[in-house]
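ok trying this again, last paste got cut off
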Amino acid sequence: MAESTRSNNNYLKYHDVKIGKDVVVGHGAIIYPNVVIGDNTFIGPYSILGEPTGSFYGEAEGCAEKHDFKKTIIGANTVIRSHSVIYENVEIGEEFQSGHRITIRENTRIGINCSVGTLSDIQDNVKLGNFVRVHSNVFMGQYTVIEDYAWIYPYVALTNDRYPPVYNPHGVTIKKYAVVSTSSVIMPGVVVGENALVGAHSVVTKNVDAEMLVLGNPARAKCNVRDIRDENDNQIYPWKDHIKEYRGYPWQTK
């Protein structure tokens, strides 16, 4: 992979870093060892790629040389905005977009054409499918799984600890095309079914069936999403069948 950065070189790059063509690296960024950056990618100012895990900080002087950095892969055509931190042993697919000040912890895998909004915190061992949309200020606990085309709106918390602080982790699973609305809390181990809709400010303590609208605290099933109508009495769910704005989904044409 040929290195061809467009920057003022006021950033720190360690050894064993591979940078693709037409990559922009912003002022003050840090790129740790064993990071691979795909072509046509933008790395915002003061971002950190390949941030080492905790053992790094307990090692002696010269820790950067002694630490066994796991590979971090940033796909082509990606935009990572300023002050973002992406840990080592993370794989991010092509066409990724971030907001500012996001954190993505180790052993996380993200598919193609995903986005993660400003101030979102993705813990370790999380899996995001393709075309996943995560808005701002979202928290994802360890072992969260989000399948293709799901939407997670602002201030959602996907929890994982059933008996805090004893720590007995069970990650949340969000199935394809599901939507979790703003300020909702999904409790550990809960599965939100395909095409389901979680209403705003809900606390979801039980699994949600496919194509079901749930609301409240605790959340209760209200109706099938196909029964929801807009102000003009038009059916709007499942959203995949009714989305009009072009968003680059495989089934859409301009």
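PB: full thing came through this time. Helices lie at 63-66.
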